[in-house]
Automatic annotation (TrEMBL):
InterPro entries given in the database record: SBP (IPR006059)
Organism: Propioniciclava soli
SUPFAM superfamilies for the chain: Periplasmic binding protein-like II
Protein family membership: Belongs to the bacterial solute-binding protein 1 family.
Keywords in alphabetical order: Signal, Transport
Signal peptide interval: 1-26
UniProt protein name: Sugar ABC transporter substrate-binding protein
Keyword Zinc: no
Pfam families assigned: SBP_bac_1
PANTHER family assigned to the protein according to its UniProt record, in alphabetical order: MALTOSE-BINDING PERIPLASMIC PROTEIN, MALTOSE_MALTODEXTRIN-BINDING PERIPLASMIC PROTEIN
TM spans (from-to): none
Length: 424
Protein backbone atom coordinates (compact mmCIF):
# COMPACT_ATOMS: atom_id res chain seq x y z
CA UNK A 1 0.00 0.00 0.00
CA UNK A 2 1.32 3.41 -0.94
CA UNK A 3 2.65 5.31 2.04
CA UNK A 4 0.65 8.40 2.84
CA UNK A 5 -1.39 9.87 5.60
CA UNK A 6 -4.64 11.46 4.61
CA UNK A 7 -6.54 13.78 6.89
CA UNK A 8 -10.03 12.52 7.67
CA UNK A 9 -10.92 13.07 4.04
CA UNK A 10 -13.84 15.32 3.36
CA UNK A 11 -14.70 15.24 7.06
CA UNK A 12 -12.36 16.83 9.56
CA UNK A 13 -11.08 19.16 6.85
CA UNK A 14 -14.66 20.16 6.22
CA UNK A 15 -15.18 20.76 9.91
CA UNK A 16 -12.34 23.24 9.97
CA UNK A 17 -13.51 25.02 6.83
CA UNK A 18 -17.26 25.10 7.31
CA UNK A 19 -19.08 28.02 5.75
CA UNK A 20 -22.81 28.62 5.85
CA UNK A 21 -24.88 29.69 2.85
CA UNK A 22 -22.34 31.22 0.54
CA UNK A 23 -21.88 34.76 -0.62
CA UNK A 24 -25.42 36.06 -0.47
CA UNK A 25 -27.08 33.45 -2.69
CA UNK A 26 -30.77 33.14 -2.03
CA UNK A 27 -31.48 30.26 0.32
CA UNK A 28 -33.31 27.38 -1.33
CA UNK A 29 -34.42 23.93 -0.38
CA UNK A 30 -33.52 20.63 -2.02
CA UNK A 31 -37.12 20.30 -3.09
CA UNK A 32 -36.65 23.24 -5.46
CA UNK A 33 -34.43 21.14 -7.71
CA UNK A 34 -35.81 19.24 -10.67
CA UNK A 35 -35.84 15.44 -10.50
CA UNK A 36 -33.03 13.46 -12.07
CA UNK A 37 -32.99 13.51 -15.85
CA UNK A 38 -31.98 10.64 -18.12
CA UNK A 39 -28.54 10.51 -19.71
CA UNK A 40 -28.41 10.21 -23.48
CA UNK A 41 -26.85 7.10 -24.96
CA UNK A 42 -23.62 7.11 -26.95
CA UNK A 43 -20.06 8.20 -26.39
CA UNK A 44 -19.16 11.24 -24.35
CA UNK A 45 -18.07 14.30 -26.29
CA UNK A 46 -16.97 17.83 -25.60
CA UNK A 47 -14.87 19.17 -22.75
CA UNK A 48 -15.18 18.31 -19.06
CA UNK A 49 -13.63 20.15 -16.15
CA UNK A 50 -12.98 18.09 -13.03
CA UNK A 51 -11.81 19.15 -9.58
CA UNK A 52 -10.27 16.68 -7.16
CA UNK A 53 -8.33 17.10 -3.96
CA UNK A 54 -5.07 15.83 -2.53
CA UNK A 55 -3.59 12.63 -3.92
CA UNK A 56 -6.77 12.02 -5.88
CA UNK A 57 -6.27 15.23 -7.81
CA UNK A 58 -2.71 14.24 -8.60
CA UNK A 59 -3.52 10.70 -9.75
CA UNK A 60 -6.88 11.18 -11.50
CA UNK A 61 -5.44 12.37 -14.85
CA UNK A 62 -3.85 8.95 -15.27
CA UNK A 63 -7.08 7.12 -14.49
CA UNK A 64 -9.21 9.09 -16.95
CA UNK A 65 -6.97 8.04 -19.84
CA UNK A 66 -9.08 4.88 -20.05
CA UNK A 67 -12.26 6.95 -20.28
CA UNK A 68 -10.76 9.08 -23.03
CA UNK A 69 -9.73 5.96 -24.94
CA UNK A 70 -13.35 4.78 -24.88
CA UNK A 71 -14.61 8.26 -25.74
CA UNK A 72 -12.07 9.73 -28.20
CA UNK A 73 -14.05 12.93 -28.77
CA UNK A 74 -14.00 14.03 -25.15
CA UNK A 75 -11.43 16.22 -23.41
CA UNK A 76 -11.04 15.93 -19.63
CA UNK A 77 -9.21 18.67 -17.75
CA UNK A 78 -8.44 17.77 -14.14
CA UNK A 79 -7.55 20.46 -11.61
CA UNK A 80 -5.89 19.38 -8.35
CA UNK A 81 -7.28 21.48 -5.49
CA UNK A 82 -5.60 21.59 -2.06
CA UNK A 83 -7.85 20.24 0.68
CA UNK A 84 -7.26 23.21 2.94
CA UNK A 85 -8.76 25.66 0.43
CA UNK A 86 -11.25 23.35 -1.28
CA UNK A 87 -14.41 24.22 0.62
CA UNK A 88 -14.03 27.95 0.17
CA UNK A 89 -13.15 27.49 -3.49
CA UNK A 90 -16.31 25.46 -4.05
CA UNK A 91 -18.62 27.90 -2.29
CA UNK A 92 -17.09 30.82 -4.20
CA UNK A 93 -17.56 28.96 -7.49
CA UNK A 94 -21.17 28.12 -6.62
CA UNK A 95 -21.87 31.78 -5.90
CA UNK A 96 -20.20 32.90 -9.12
CA UNK A 97 -21.66 30.16 -11.33
CA UNK A 98 -18.18 28.90 -12.23
CA UNK A 99 -18.31 25.37 -10.84
CA UNK A 100 -16.61 22.46 -12.60
CA UNK A 101 -18.64 19.82 -14.41
CA UNK A 102 -17.57 17.04 -12.03
CA UNK A 103 -15.89 17.18 -8.65
CA UNK A 104 -14.79 15.19 -5.67
CA UNK A 105 -17.05 16.33 -2.83
CA UNK A 106 -16.51 15.69 0.85
CA UNK A 107 -19.33 13.63 2.31
CA UNK A 108 -20.24 16.21 4.95
CA UNK A 109 -20.52 18.96 2.34
CA UNK A 110 -23.48 17.30 0.63
CA UNK A 111 -26.27 18.87 2.66
CA UNK A 112 -24.78 22.32 2.32
CA UNK A 113 -24.22 22.12 -1.45
CA UNK A 114 -27.66 20.60 -2.10
CA UNK A 115 -29.17 23.39 -0.01
CA UNK A 116 -27.55 25.81 -2.46
CA UNK A 117 -29.10 23.87 -5.39
CA UNK A 118 -25.57 23.31 -6.70
CA UNK A 119 -25.69 19.57 -7.45
CA UNK A 120 -27.45 17.57 -10.15
CA UNK A 121 -29.60 14.65 -8.90
CA UNK A 122 -28.10 11.25 -9.67
CA UNK A 123 -29.62 9.72 -12.83
CA UNK A 124 -30.79 6.13 -13.30
CA UNK A 125 -27.54 5.49 -15.22
CA UNK A 126 -26.00 4.79 -11.78
CA UNK A 127 -27.29 1.80 -9.81
CA UNK A 128 -27.22 2.79 -6.10
CA UNK A 129 -27.42 -0.82 -4.93
CA UNK A 130 -23.84 -1.52 -6.02
CA UNK A 131 -22.40 0.71 -3.28
CA UNK A 132 -22.07 0.04 0.43
CA UNK A 133 -25.29 1.18 2.06
CA UNK A 134 -23.56 3.56 4.44
CA UNK A 135 -21.59 5.13 1.57
CA UNK A 136 -24.69 5.53 -0.57
CA UNK A 137 -26.47 7.27 2.29
CA UNK A 138 -23.82 10.02 2.26
CA UNK A 139 -25.04 11.04 -1.21
CA UNK A 140 -28.67 11.42 -0.18
CA UNK A 141 -30.43 14.53 1.08
CA UNK A 142 -34.14 14.31 1.89
CA UNK A 143 -34.31 10.95 0.15
CA UNK A 144 -32.73 12.07 -3.14
CA UNK A 145 -29.21 11.13 -4.25
CA UNK A 146 -27.02 13.93 -5.60
CA UNK A 147 -23.72 12.09 -6.08
CA UNK A 148 -22.12 8.67 -6.04
CA UNK A 149 -19.62 7.24 -3.53
CA UNK A 150 -16.15 7.30 -5.10
CA UNK A 151 -14.01 5.70 -2.43
CA UNK A 152 -14.63 4.81 1.17
CA UNK A 153 -12.94 4.35 4.48
CA UNK A 154 -14.08 3.24 7.90
CA UNK A 155 -12.54 2.95 11.35
CA UNK A 156 -11.29 -0.16 13.12
CA UNK A 157 -9.53 -0.91 16.36
CA UNK A 158 -5.76 -1.32 15.89
CA UNK A 159 -4.14 -3.33 18.67
CA UNK A 160 -0.76 -4.87 19.41
CA UNK A 161 -1.33 -8.61 19.53
CA UNK A 162 2.01 -9.29 21.21
CA UNK A 163 1.27 -6.89 24.08
CA UNK A 164 -2.29 -8.20 24.39
CA UNK A 165 -1.01 -11.77 24.65
CA UNK A 166 1.53 -10.76 27.28
CA UNK A 167 -1.40 -9.29 29.23
CA UNK A 168 -3.36 -12.55 28.91
CA UNK A 169 -5.65 -11.47 26.03
CA UNK A 170 -5.65 -13.82 23.05
CA UNK A 171 -8.74 -12.72 21.12
CA UNK A 172 -9.90 -9.45 19.61
CA UNK A 173 -12.43 -7.60 21.77
CA UNK A 174 -15.95 -8.29 20.51
CA UNK A 175 -17.96 -6.20 22.99
CA UNK A 176 -17.68 -2.96 24.94
CA UNK A 177 -16.85 -4.97 28.04
CA UNK A 178 -14.14 -6.87 26.14
CA UNK A 179 -12.48 -3.63 25.03
CA UNK A 180 -12.49 -2.23 28.54
CA UNK A 181 -11.07 -5.52 29.86
CA UNK A 182 -8.29 -5.49 27.25
CA UNK A 183 -7.36 -1.91 28.05
CA UNK A 184 -7.35 -2.65 31.78
CA UNK A 185 -5.16 -5.72 31.29
CA UNK A 186 -2.73 -3.82 29.06
CA UNK A 187 -2.42 -1.01 31.58
CA UNK A 188 -0.10 -3.15 33.67
CA UNK A 189 2.03 -4.41 30.77
CA UNK A 190 5.68 -3.44 30.66
CA UNK A 191 6.35 -0.24 28.71
CA UNK A 192 2.68 0.72 28.36
CA UNK A 193 1.95 4.32 29.36
CA UNK A 194 -1.66 4.46 28.17
CA UNK A 195 -3.48 1.38 26.86
CA UNK A 196 -5.51 3.18 24.21
CA UNK A 197 -5.29 6.44 22.27
CA UNK A 198 -8.61 8.32 22.13
CA UNK A 199 -9.26 11.96 21.35
CA UNK A 200 -10.19 13.92 24.49
CA UNK A 201 -12.46 16.20 22.53
CA UNK A 202 -11.29 18.60 19.87
CA UNK A 203 -11.81 18.43 16.12
CA UNK A 204 -13.08 15.06 14.97
CA UNK A 205 -13.62 13.44 18.37
CA UNK A 206 -17.31 13.04 17.52
CA UNK A 207 -16.30 10.55 14.83
CA UNK A 208 -15.42 8.02 17.54
CA UNK A 209 -18.21 8.87 19.97
CA UNK A 210 -21.04 8.80 17.42
CA UNK A 211 -20.39 5.15 16.41
CA UNK A 212 -20.61 4.23 20.11
CA UNK A 213 -24.02 5.89 20.20
CA UNK A 214 -25.08 3.93 17.13
CA UNK A 215 -23.70 0.75 18.68
CA UNK A 216 -25.90 1.35 21.73
CA UNK A 217 -29.01 1.82 19.60
CA UNK A 218 -28.89 5.62 19.69
CA UNK A 219 -29.31 8.28 17.03
CA UNK A 220 -28.66 12.03 16.97
CA UNK A 221 -31.66 13.00 14.84
CA UNK A 222 -35.11 11.46 14.61
CA UNK A 223 -36.13 9.37 11.60
CA UNK A 224 -37.59 12.22 9.57
CA UNK A 225 -34.74 14.59 10.49
CA UNK A 226 -37.00 17.17 12.09
CA UNK A 227 -35.44 17.14 15.57
CA UNK A 228 -32.16 16.35 17.28
CA UNK A 229 -32.02 13.47 19.77
CA UNK A 230 -28.64 13.89 21.46
CA UNK A 231 -29.89 13.60 25.05
CA UNK A 232 -31.38 10.09 24.93
CA UNK A 233 -30.40 7.45 27.54
CA UNK A 234 -28.63 5.41 24.84
CA UNK A 235 -26.43 8.34 23.87
CA UNK A 236 -25.72 9.28 27.47
CA UNK A 237 -24.56 5.73 28.20
CA UNK A 238 -22.30 5.77 25.14
CA UNK A 239 -20.66 9.04 26.16
CA UNK A 240 -20.25 7.78 29.73
CA UNK A 241 -18.50 4.69 28.36
CA UNK A 242 -16.14 6.86 26.30
CA UNK A 243 -15.52 9.10 29.31
CA UNK A 244 -14.65 6.11 31.48
CA UNK A 245 -11.46 5.42 29.54
CA UNK A 246 -10.18 8.81 30.67
CA UNK A 247 -11.46 8.73 34.25
CA UNK A 248 -10.03 5.23 34.76
CA UNK A 249 -6.60 6.22 33.48
CA UNK A 250 -6.80 4.14 30.31
CA UNK A 251 -6.53 7.07 27.87
CA UNK A 252 -4.51 10.27 28.08
CA UNK A 253 -6.46 13.51 28.57
CA UNK A 254 -3.54 15.50 27.12
CA UNK A 255 -1.97 13.42 24.34
CA UNK A 256 0.87 14.77 22.23
CA UNK A 257 -0.29 15.46 18.69
CA UNK A 258 1.21 13.40 15.89
CA UNK A 259 2.68 10.56 17.98
CA UNK A 260 0.05 7.86 17.44
CA UNK A 261 2.18 5.78 15.08
CA UNK A 262 5.38 6.10 17.11
CA UNK A 263 3.61 5.27 20.38
CA UNK A 264 1.95 2.27 18.76
CA UNK A 265 5.22 0.94 17.37
CA UNK A 266 7.07 1.46 20.65
CA UNK A 267 4.24 -0.15 22.59
CA UNK A 268 3.70 2.89 24.78
CA UNK A 269 0.10 3.13 23.53
CA UNK A 270 -0.83 -0.28 22.08
CA UNK A 271 -4.37 0.52 20.85
CA UNK A 272 -6.03 3.21 18.76
CA UNK A 273 -9.02 3.61 16.44
CA UNK A 274 -8.42 4.81 12.90
CA UNK A 275 -8.76 4.15 9.20
CA UNK A 276 -6.90 2.06 6.60
CA UNK A 277 -4.28 4.72 5.82
CA UNK A 278 -2.63 3.99 9.18
CA UNK A 279 -1.61 0.48 8.10
CA UNK A 280 1.21 1.62 5.86
CA UNK A 281 2.21 4.31 8.36
CA UNK A 282 2.76 1.95 11.27
CA UNK A 283 4.28 -0.81 9.16
CA UNK A 284 6.82 1.49 7.54
CA UNK A 285 7.73 2.97 10.90
CA UNK A 286 7.85 -0.43 12.59
CA UNK A 287 10.00 -2.00 9.90
CA UNK A 288 10.27 -5.57 8.70
CA UNK A 289 8.04 -7.97 10.59
CA UNK A 290 5.97 -5.34 12.38
CA UNK A 291 2.87 -6.28 10.38
CA UNK A 292 2.82 -9.52 12.35
CA UNK A 293 2.83 -7.71 15.70
CA UNK A 294 -0.56 -6.06 15.36
CA UNK A 295 -4.06 -6.77 14.15
CA UNK A 296 -7.20 -4.80 13.35
CA UNK A 297 -10.64 -5.66 14.64
CA UNK A 298 -14.15 -4.47 13.95
CA UNK A 299 -15.55 -1.98 16.43
CA UNK A 300 -16.81 -3.67 19.60
CA UNK A 301 -20.54 -4.25 19.95
CA UNK A 302 -23.04 -3.17 22.58
CA UNK A 303 -26.50 -3.56 21.05
CA UNK A 304 -25.14 -3.73 17.51
CA UNK A 305 -21.90 -3.34 15.58
CA UNK A 306 -21.28 0.10 14.08
CA UNK A 307 -18.49 2.27 12.77
CA UNK A 308 -18.04 5.56 11.00
CA UNK A 309 -17.90 5.75 7.21
CA UNK A 310 -15.85 8.36 5.41
CA UNK A 311 -14.36 8.90 2.00
CA UNK A 312 -15.45 11.15 -0.84
CA UNK A 313 -18.25 11.35 -3.37
CA UNK A 314 -18.31 12.29 -7.04
CA UNK A 315 -20.88 14.90 -7.97
CA UNK A 316 -22.01 16.64 -11.13
CA UNK A 317 -22.79 20.31 -10.70
CA UNK A 318 -26.17 21.58 -11.85
CA UNK A 319 -24.49 24.41 -13.78
CA UNK A 320 -22.59 21.95 -15.99
CA UNK A 321 -22.93 22.66 -19.69
CA UNK A 322 -21.89 19.08 -20.52
CA UNK A 323 -24.01 17.25 -18.00
CA UNK A 324 -24.47 13.95 -19.88
CA UNK A 325 -20.74 13.52 -20.53
CA UNK A 326 -20.11 14.38 -16.89
CA UNK A 327 -22.34 11.56 -15.65
CA UNK A 328 -20.76 9.16 -18.15
CA UNK A 329 -17.39 9.95 -16.58
CA UNK A 330 -18.81 9.36 -13.10
CA UNK A 331 -20.26 6.07 -14.31
CA UNK A 332 -16.87 5.04 -15.67
CA UNK A 333 -15.10 5.89 -12.42
CA UNK A 334 -17.48 3.69 -10.45
CA UNK A 335 -17.23 0.60 -12.61
CA UNK A 336 -15.79 -2.41 -10.78
CA UNK A 337 -12.69 -2.64 -12.99
CA UNK A 338 -11.99 1.08 -12.67
CA UNK A 339 -12.39 0.94 -8.89
CA UNK A 340 -9.81 -1.86 -8.69
CA UNK A 341 -7.42 0.10 -10.91
CA UNK A 342 -7.91 3.16 -8.67
CA UNK A 343 -7.12 1.08 -5.58
CA UNK A 344 -3.90 -0.09 -7.25
CA UNK A 345 -2.98 3.52 -8.02
CA UNK A 346 -3.90 5.20 -4.74
CA UNK A 347 -4.88 2.59 -2.12
CA UNK A 348 -8.32 4.23 -1.96
CA UNK A 349 -10.78 1.54 -0.88
CA UNK A 350 -13.53 0.80 -3.42
CA UNK A 351 -17.06 2.02 -2.75
CA UNK A 352 -18.44 -0.62 -5.12
CA UNK A 353 -19.07 -3.79 -3.13
CA UNK A 354 -18.28 -6.23 -5.94
CA UNK A 355 -14.77 -4.77 -6.28
CA UNK A 356 -13.96 -6.28 -2.88
CA UNK A 357 -13.96 -9.73 -4.49
CA UNK A 358 -10.64 -8.79 -6.09
CA UNK A 359 -7.76 -10.95 -4.90
CA UNK A 360 -5.66 -7.96 -3.81
CA UNK A 361 -8.32 -6.99 -1.29
CA UNK A 362 -9.39 -10.45 -0.21
CA UNK A 363 -5.87 -11.77 0.28
CA UNK A 364 -4.99 -9.09 2.83
CA UNK A 365 -6.66 -10.08 6.11
CA UNK A 366 -6.54 -6.57 7.53
CA UNK A 367 -8.06 -4.98 4.41
CA UNK A 368 -10.72 -7.69 4.37
CA UNK A 369 -11.65 -6.67 7.93
CA UNK A 370 -12.14 -3.10 6.74
CA UNK A 371 -14.40 -4.48 4.02
CA UNK A 372 -16.43 -6.40 6.59
CA UNK A 373 -16.79 -3.30 8.79
CA UNK A 374 -18.06 -1.28 5.84
CA UNK A 375 -21.20 -3.42 5.95
CA UNK A 376 -22.12 -1.73 9.25
CA UNK A 377 -20.50 1.69 8.82
CA UNK A 378 -22.70 4.75 8.81
CA UNK A 379 -22.60 8.46 8.10
CA UNK A 380 -23.82 11.43 10.13
CA UNK A 381 -27.15 12.97 9.13
CA UNK A 382 -27.11 14.77 5.77
CA UNK A 383 -28.29 18.13 7.06
CA UNK A 384 -26.95 21.52 6.01
CA UNK A 385 -25.81 22.44 9.51
CA UNK A 386 -24.11 19.21 10.52
CA UNK A 387 -20.61 20.67 10.58
CA UNK A 388 -21.70 23.44 12.95
CA UNK A 389 -23.40 20.87 15.15
CA UNK A 390 -20.29 18.67 14.99
CA UNK A 391 -18.16 21.52 16.32
CA UNK A 392 -20.51 21.81 19.29
CA UNK A 393 -20.39 18.02 19.68
CA UNK A 394 -16.59 18.09 19.84
CA UNK A 395 -16.69 20.82 22.49
CA UNK A 396 -19.00 18.79 24.74
CA UNK A 397 -16.83 15.68 24.35
CA UNK A 398 -13.86 17.77 25.49
CA UNK A 399 -15.70 19.00 28.58
CA UNK A 400 -16.73 15.49 29.53
CA UNK A 401 -13.35 13.83 28.98
CA UNK A 402 -10.98 16.51 30.28
CA UNK A 403 -12.96 18.10 33.11
CA UNK A 404 -14.97 15.02 34.02
CA UNK A 405 -18.26 16.89 33.73
CA UNK A 406 -21.53 14.97 33.73
CA UNK A 407 -22.23 13.26 30.39
CA UNK A 408 -25.99 13.67 30.69
CA UNK A 409 -25.65 17.38 31.36
CA UNK A 410 -23.23 17.71 28.45
CA UNK A 411 -25.63 16.07 26.01
CA UNK A 412 -28.50 18.14 27.35
CA UNK A 413 -26.47 21.27 26.60
CA UNK A 414 -25.58 19.90 23.16
CA UNK A 415 -29.24 19.15 22.49
CA UNK A 416 -30.13 22.76 23.23
CA UNK A 417 -27.32 24.17 21.12
CA UNK A 418 -28.04 21.87 18.18
CA UNK A 419 -31.72 22.78 18.33
CA UNK A 420 -30.74 26.46 18.31
CA UNK A 421 -28.53 25.90 15.26
CA UNK A 422 -31.29 23.98 13.51
CA UNK A 423 -31.28 21.63 10.54
CA UNK A 424 -30.67 24.29 7.90
Amino acid sequence: MKTRKRALVGLTVALALFGTAACGRAETTPGDQAPAQEVTEGAATGTLTVWAMGVEGEELPGLVEGFKAENPDVTVNVTAVPWDSAHDRFTAAIAAGTTPDVAQVGTTWMGEFVGLNALDPTPDLIDPSMFFEGAQSTTEVDGTSYAVPWYVETRLLYYRTDIAEAAGITEAPATWDDLKAMATAMKGAEGVRWPISLLPGGTGSWQTVLPLMWSNGGQVVNDDQTAFTFDTPENVEALQYYQSFFTEGLANTAPTSGTTEADFVSGAVPMFISGPWMMSSVENLGGEGFADQYAVAEMPTKVTNASFIGGSNLAVFSASENRDAAWKLVDYLTQEETQIEWFDMTSDLPSVQSAWDDAALQSDEKLATFGAQLETAYAPPAIQTWEQVANAFDAEVERVTITGSDAAAGLSALQQEATSIGMG
